[in-house]
Design brief:
single chain, Nucleotidyltransferase, domain 5, globular
Length: about 140
Amino acid sequence: MGRLLAFDYGQKRTGLAETDDLQIIATGLAGLDTHEVIPFVKRYLEKHQVDAFVVGDPSGLGSDITHNTGPAHDFAAKLQKIFPSVPVHMVDESFSSREAMQSMVMGGMKKSKRRDKKILDEVSAAVILRRYMDGR
């Protein structure tokens, strides 16, 4: 069994999260500038088998279009085009950043670290991945 790799896509930064090989635990992997994501994924796939990509869908509650809906869907299509053997799934990301911030606070992360947007994006990607895993 391979891993799952999730993305909290943003036009400036993107958070990534992964599962273990048994797809039991979702953990944050990286917060990257968005232009670094595809090269990172290419290197990642050289080392790990990935069964699926999971991309956060920023359509709001009730499937409203947000400023990031189009770019996130374009990113999912780009993943599918570049890595055609890996299926891409979209998962509702509503309130994932809020949930990520709450988990960082409850986990005792220092305020100075919580201010780092890349860490927030990484934890948000883990929230999105956990939602996908729970919904299977």
